[in-house]
């Protein structure tokens, strides 16, 4: 299973980016998919998740600004990030977890929020 993340870049505070995570198999085969991020010198943290039933959850600090969604026809999960802040800077990783608890990771995409 491969997860291909893309969409990162440099954006000014208040700007927007949309990250994509394309899976090599049907995203319904995962029990849940999500996005994590790792800032320099910090541990990786969970940011947002979506279950196979479509329910979503968010880290408190991104709730209301980020939206996770999935497109089954493209086997892709998205993370729409609005009102970006410098503290959102980091490498963003997509994750897919199977019903048996196996985790698959994408390669990471850099998001830098800076003026």
Topology (SSEs and partners):
Blueprint: E1 3-6, E2 9-11, E3 17-23, E4 32-38, E5 45-51, E6 56-58, E7 66-71, E8 76-81, E9 90-97, E10 103-105, E11 109-113
Parallel strand pairs: 2-11
Antiparallel strand pairs: 1-3, 3-8, 4-5, 4-9, 5-6, 7-8, 9-10, 9-11
Please name the defining characteristics of this protein.
4-stranded antiparallel beta sheet
- Per DSSP E runs of 2 or more residues, the count of β-strands stands at 11
Main sheet: strands, sense, barrel: 7 strands, mixed
Looking at the structure, what is the overall shape?
A: globular
- Helix-residue proportion: under 10%
Reading the helices and strands in chain order gives EEEEEEEEEEE
Q: Report the end-to-end length measured between terminal Cα atoms.
A: 37 Å
Secondary structure class reads: mainly beta
How is this structure best described in words?
The protein is mainly beta and 115 residues long. It is 0% helix and 51% strand. The chain is built from no helices and 11 strands. Strands 2, 4, 5, 6, 9, 10 and 11 form a 7-stranded mixed β-sheet that branches. A 4-stranded antiparallel β-sheet has the order 1-3-8-7, with no helix packed on it. 31% of the residues are buried. The mean pLDDT is 96.
Q: How would you concisely characterize the structure shown here?
A:
By secondary structure, the chain is an all-beta fold. It contains no helices and 11 strands.
């Amino acid at each position: 299973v491969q997860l291909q993340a893309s969409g990162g870049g440099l954006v000014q505070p208040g700007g927007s980016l949309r990250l994509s995570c394309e899976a090599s198999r049907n995203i319904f085969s995962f029990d849940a998919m999500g996005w994590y991020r790792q800032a320099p010198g910090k541990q990786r943290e969970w940011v947002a998740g979506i279950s196979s039933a479509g329910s979503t959850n968010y880290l408190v600090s991104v709730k209301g600004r980020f939206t996770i969604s999935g497109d089954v026809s493209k086997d892709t999960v998205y993370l729409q990030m609005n009102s970006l802040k410098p503290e959102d800077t980091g490498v963003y990783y997509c994750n897919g977890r199977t019903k048996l608890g196996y985790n698959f990771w994408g390669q990471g995409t850099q998001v830098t929020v800076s003026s």
